[in-house]
From TrEMBL:
This is G-protein coupled receptors family 1 profile domain-containing protein. Its main location: membrane. The chain crosses the membrane at residues 45-72, 84-103, 129-151, 163-185, 216-239, 260-278, 298-321. GO terms for cellular component: neuron projection; plasma membrane. Belongs to the G-protein coupled receptor 1 family. It is found in: Cell membrane. It holds the Pfam family 7tm_1. Keywords: Cell membrane, Disulfide bond, G-protein coupled receptor, Glycoprotein, Membrane, Receptor, Transducer, Transmembrane, Transmembrane helix. InterPro entries: GPCR_Rhodpsn, GPCR_Rhodpsn_7TM, Neuropept_B/W_rcpt. Residues 63-318 form the G-protein coupled receptors family 1 profile domain.
Length: 338
């Protein structure tokens, strides 16, 4: 059986040949190549990684919880766009909640938490890949429809807060279905030579074909399709706005709609900046056979940390770009007399 572990931990250093994808992907690494503890101390990664992930966890949990609280409590924040932002924050919060368990496994260098929690943690790790980009895809579709309706001077009676709730639920169901194969293959693997346990994806024979399939599966469903959809939507959106400026003196979007569109675009750009290296590593793994070097290992950890960091950046983007969010948060954080 081929066994693949949690992302960002224990890169294979037991031989000269290394699978670059396994260093950076949520599908992790081969437990037969779990490095000795001296490797961590030699590279200082044993200490540095828990610190980085702890910062991501603390900042992400605080920021996304604040976003959830403001949107749920402030009446004026209950908009269609904010419903999608709420679900994006929930997905990020869910991921940051399990980071301490990943950190514990890294420090202990084995998995002590059992089979059920292993499946839960690996599933949530994979939710993090798909949920962010799918909610951003939905937000991009929503922005395109808003721009299209504004340019055509049409109303959108179907664009309601209730409809946004239903769409968000459908996105969650879709992501659960996409991630379900990884949940099935997740389990605790015990190495025969020393009994060390790892939380891994255990693929049946032929292992190589299963691993290649899982890479292509993640690349297509988690990156190629949603990003292509987003790029097409924004290209069409810019084309329509350009024609609107050429053919009419009217503004294509009013001030409020323009700000929301810009905010969604920037959140999307940051997401792609954080996740594109992760998915490019999949392409590298499918097309090359890299040798294991300290430099490559350093790159793998950087890519993993960058993808994790996306879960704590969005709240700051909302605070800087969304006046209504900033005002609602300030109002709700003010001390009120009893």
């Amino acid at each position: 059986m081929e066994n693949v572990s949690i992302p960002g931990f224990a890169p294979p250093v037991c031989n000269d040949s290394v699978d670059f994808y396994s260093l950076t992907s949520v599908n992790g690494t081969h437990p037969n190549c779990i490095p000795p503890s001296g490797f961590y101390f030699y590279t200082d990664l044993y200490i540095i990684l828990p610190v980085i992930y702890s910062v991501i966890c603390a900042v992400g949990l605080t920021g996304n919880t604040a976003v959830i609280y403001v949107i749920l409590k402030a009446p004026r924040m209950k908009t269609v766009t904010n419903m999608f932002i709420l679900n994006l924050a929930i997905a990020d919060d869910l991921f940051t909640l399990v980071l301490p368990i990943n950190i514990a496994e890294h420090l202990l260098q084995y998995w002590p938490f059992g089979e059920v929690l292993c499946k839960v943690i690996l599933s949530i790790d994979h939710y993090n890949i798909f949920s962010s980009i799918y909610f951003l895809t939905v937000m991009s579709i929503d922005r395109y429809l808003v721009v299209l309706a504004t340019v055509s001077s049409k109303r959108m009676p179907y664009r309601t807060y209730r409809a946004a709730k239903i769409i968000s639920l459908c996105v969650w169901i879709l992501v659960i279905l996409i991630v379900s194969p990884y949940t099935v293959f997740a389990g605790v693997y015990e190495r025969p030579n020393d009994g060390r346990k790892s939380c891994v994806l255990s693929f049946p024979s032929p292992e190589g074909s299963w691993i290649t399939t899982s890479r292509i599966y993640t690349l297509i469903l988690g990156f190629a399709i949603p990003v292509s959809t987003i790029c097409i939507l924004y290209t069409m959106m810019l084309y329509k706005l350009r024609n609107m400026r050429l053919n009419s003196n009217a503004k294509a979007l009013d001030k409020a709609k323009k700000k929301v569109t810009i905010m969604v675009f920037i959140v999307l750009a940051v997401c792609l900046f954080c996740w594109t290296p992760f998915h490019l590593s999949t392409i590298v793994a499918l097309t090359t056979d890299l040798r294991n070097t300290p430099f490559l290992i350093g790159i793998s950890y950087f890519i993993t940390s960058l993808s994790y960091a996306n879960s704590c950046l969005n709240p700051f983007l909302y605070a800087f770009l969304d006046d209504s969010f900033r005002k609602a948060f300030k109002k709700m954080s003010e001390c009120r007399p009893a």
